[in-house]
């Protein structure tokens, strides 16, 4: 009946989309689908602004169950030994209308964590100055509707349960709980008849839908004969949904009998008591050289070897594993019996890796196997391994692939020819993971029946594999309370872990970029010399400050190997920005030729206000444009005052305009144009160097001449001890008497 269904609605706040250059540009949505959900509907809404800068755009939306989607919009390479399965994605076009609404329906979805990631196309790479242009806002929001069955019938193992399908429009939903250590499951449908006492036709769907890959088992049963479906390695300790649909007439009901049975797997444990004793001894932390440490490491290893040879009748051998949480999205798995585990041929050795906390799917799971060649006497024997989620692979041989009932695992193998193997699972889904290992022989298992191999297993969860390498930075991202990590690459490197060197800069190019960006600041030396020569000592000290911090900021800001940081990066950046803006502020005030007391008051007051504004928003365009415009207003007002007072154009000399002011203004405008409109990520090292050169040269041209009553280096004459004629320091030049 319809009253048995409950509809629920889940929504999250909308997010502003970004053009894609790394995973941090993708906007993530995290939902939790409740148990007994029979229908899931996503409501995806994409919209854009109404300004002229808003153009047609395509939004890409990725879906994944259990973990954030692993995406690759740029087509870069993943790190070696990494497992990548394409994500399920759709595209939403924003061409005509300003808003697009799309629905995505999923029947019988898997209960648990679902993730959606949305982004715009690849970023153009242009460096935009904040405030010069208004980017178009593209907004995306995802809402989730679920239809949940409140009283879904429970199919008990070994108990036949009669059921009735009312009509084809109302399929039958039941669920069965899969116990731990279930090696196989068998579902049978018996006595299937219609209400008209005719042979029925039904379709049975076993399992739930997961994205990007779904492993639902579907079988069609026709007639009243017994119809069965068998599964190997069903998911342990989970509810398994079964949906039965009638394929008959629209008004006819179907009656049937359902029966579920399980095949149990008897596990063997490697010395659980001694493992517990070993754990207690390891927590007391004996010194490595002490006798207690030697005894605690030797006894469990020998006992484990004895148990493996003794318990040959078990279908698997479990090794105790301790999960050790180190930090956010950082876990280390430690084997209590030592890093080396015995692997036989009769039954697989099983290691349990718990990633079921809900906060472990935002990193990378790394599994490393190392074979002890001296422990394996057979030359052609190999150790096959399979990493799977939800349930283990209980039989590893040459004919069976690494898969369970509803999961395609990740295979590994080590042998005498290749003794080491590594596997990297990017964003592992939230679940209990199992690592199965078994010894295989090319001529059959009888050849290596009595053989045993020692394999050292290292397993850990890390936010970013290899910490993104030397050309990347590992960033911890957050969406509400969920944390995940991503790599931001530099120096032309790309890929998930910054291992793709297709567009990478060579070491020579990196050195050239560093030299250009640092040595171009030496062009401030002529400006400093001119300022000192004209007795502008305060201005010269500010230019020296700017040259120093700009040089070492760009030496620290470089990616790759050509880097040198004399202090904290944030401090260098702040000092560079502060020196640049204060230099422009003081240069324009110096050109205004106001009275000294007023000039120095404006110097100090403007510097304090600039320091405050840079602390509020360091990259805002008005932090530079505001002081410049205000100083220009003061300069123009002062020049008009001087011109009116003397009834002559100010500055009065045409040579000053032609040879100094006009070249300086031209260089300043070219520098602003290069800085605001021409810089990209690819040409930054030479366009920004041009900006340094043009600004420094414009300062040298724009500095006004010294007062005519002052001699060069007049400040040094004050150090002498003698009588001097008093001078009348007049601020106004060319006074008419």
TrEMBL record:
InterPro entries per the UniProt record, alphabetical: EGF (IPR000742), NGX6/PGAP6/MYMK (IPR021910)
The organism's taxonomic lineage, starting at the top: Eukaryota, Metazoa, Chordata, Craniata, Vertebrata
Superkingdom per UniProt: Eukaryota
Full protein name: TMM8A factor
Gene name of the encoded protein: Tmem8a
Cystine bridges: 464-474, 489-498
Cell location: Cell membrane
One GO location term (cellular component): plasma membrane
Chief site of localization: membrane
Transmembrane segments: 597-616, 622-641, 657-678, 684-703
Record's keyword terms, sorted: Cell membrane, Disulfide bond, EGF-like domain, Membrane, Transmembrane, Transmembrane helix
Residue ranges annotated for the EGF-like domain, each copy included: 460-499
PANTHER family according to UniProt: FIVE-SPAN TRANSMEMBRANE PROTEIN M83, POST-GPI ATTACHMENT TO PROTEINS FACTOR 6
Membrane topology field: Multi-pass membrane protein
UniProt-listed Pfam families: DUF3522
Family per record: Belongs to the TMEM8 family.
């Amino acid at each position: 009946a319809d009253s048995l269904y409950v509809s629920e609605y889940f929504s999250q706040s909308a997010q502003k989309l970004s053009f894609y250059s790394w995973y941090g540009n993708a906007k993530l949505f995290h939902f939790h689908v409740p148990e007994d959900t029979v229908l899931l509907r996503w409501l995806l809404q994409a919209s854009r602004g109404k300004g002229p800068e808003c153009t047609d755009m395509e939004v890409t939306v990725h879906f994944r169950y259990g973990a954030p989607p692993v995406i690759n919009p740029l087509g870069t390479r993943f790190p070696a030994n990494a497992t990548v399965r394409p994500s399920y994605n759709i595209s939403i076009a924003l061409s005509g209308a300003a808003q697009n609404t799309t629905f995505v329906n999923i029947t019988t979805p898997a209960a648990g964590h679902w993730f959606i990631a949305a982004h715009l196309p690849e970023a153009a790479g242009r460096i935009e100055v904040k405030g010069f242009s208004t980017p178009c806002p593209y907004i995306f929001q995802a809402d989730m509707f679920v239809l949940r069955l409140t009283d879904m019938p429970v199919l008990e193992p070994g108990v036949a349960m009669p059921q009735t399908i009312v009509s084809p429009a109302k399929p039958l939903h039941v669920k069965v709980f899969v116990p731990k250590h279930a090696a196989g499951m068998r579902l049978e449908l018996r006595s299937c008849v219609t209400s008209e006492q005719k042979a029925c036709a039904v379709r049975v769907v076993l399992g739930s839908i997961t994205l990007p890959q779904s492993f639902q088992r579907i079988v069609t049963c026709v007639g009243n004969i017994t119809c069965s479906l068998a599964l190997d390695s069903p998911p342990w300790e989970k509810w398994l949904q079964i949906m039965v649909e009638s394929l008959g007439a629209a008004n006819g009901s179907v009656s049937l009998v359902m029966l579920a049975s399980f095949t149990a797997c008897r596990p063997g444990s490697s010395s659980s008591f001694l493992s517990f004793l070993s754990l207690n001894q390891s927590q007391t932390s004996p010194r490595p050289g002490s006798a207690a440490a030697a005894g605690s490491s030797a006894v469990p290893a020998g006992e484990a070897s004895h148990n493996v040879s003794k318990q040959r009748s078990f279908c698997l051998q479990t090794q105790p594993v301790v999960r050790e949480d180190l930090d956010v999205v950082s876990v280390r798995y430690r084997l209590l019996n030592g890093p080396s585990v015995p692997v036989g041929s009769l039954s697989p050795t099983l290691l349990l890796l718990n990633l079921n906390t809900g906060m472990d799917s935002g990193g990378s799971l790394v599994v490393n196997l190392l074979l002890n060649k001296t422990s394996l006497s057979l030359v052609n024997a190999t150790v096959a391994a399979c990493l799977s989620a939800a349930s283990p692979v209980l039989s590893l041989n040459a004919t069976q692939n690494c898969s369970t009932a509803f999961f395609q695992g990740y295979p590994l193998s080590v042998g005498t020819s290749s003794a080491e193997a590594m596997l990297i699972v990017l964003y592992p889904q939230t679940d209990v993971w199992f690592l199965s290992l078994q010894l295989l022989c090319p001529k059959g298992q009888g050849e290596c029946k009595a053989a045993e191999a020692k394999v050292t297993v290292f397993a850990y969860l890390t936010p970013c594999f290899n910490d993104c390498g030397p050309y990347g930075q590992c960033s911890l991202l957050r969406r509400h309370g969920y944390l995940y990590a991503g790599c931001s690459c530099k120096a032309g490197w790309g890929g998930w872990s910054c291992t793709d060197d297709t567009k990478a800069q060579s070491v020579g190019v990196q050195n050239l970029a560093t030299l250009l960006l640092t040595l171009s600041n030496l062009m401030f030396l002529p400006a400093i010399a001119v300022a000192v020569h004209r007795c502008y000592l305060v201005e010269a000290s500010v230019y020296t400050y700017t040259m120093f911090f700009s040089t070492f900021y760009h030496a620290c800001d470089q990616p790759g190997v050509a880097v040198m940081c004399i202090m904290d990066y944030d401090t260098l950046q702040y000092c560079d920005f502060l020196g640049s803006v204060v230099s422009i502020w003081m240069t324009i005030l110096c050109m205004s030729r106001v009275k000294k007391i007023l000039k120095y008051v404006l110097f100090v007051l403007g510097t304090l206000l600039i320091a405050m504004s840079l602390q509020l928003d360091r990259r805002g365009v008005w932090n530079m444009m505001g002081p410049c415009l205000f100083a220009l207003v003061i300069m123009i007002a002062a020049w008009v005052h001087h011109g009116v007072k003397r009834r002559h154009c100010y500055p009065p000399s045409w040579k000053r305009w032609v040879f100094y002011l006009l070249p300086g203004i031209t260089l300043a405008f070219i520098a602003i144009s290069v800085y605001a409109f021409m810089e990209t990520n690819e040409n930054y090292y030479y366009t920004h160097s041009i900006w340094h050169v043009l600004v420094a040269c414009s300062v040298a041209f724009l500095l006004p001449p010294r007062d005519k009553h002052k001699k060069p280096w007049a400040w040094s004459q004050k150090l002498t001890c003698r009588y001097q004629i008093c001078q009348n320091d007049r601020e106004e030049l060319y006074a008419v008497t």
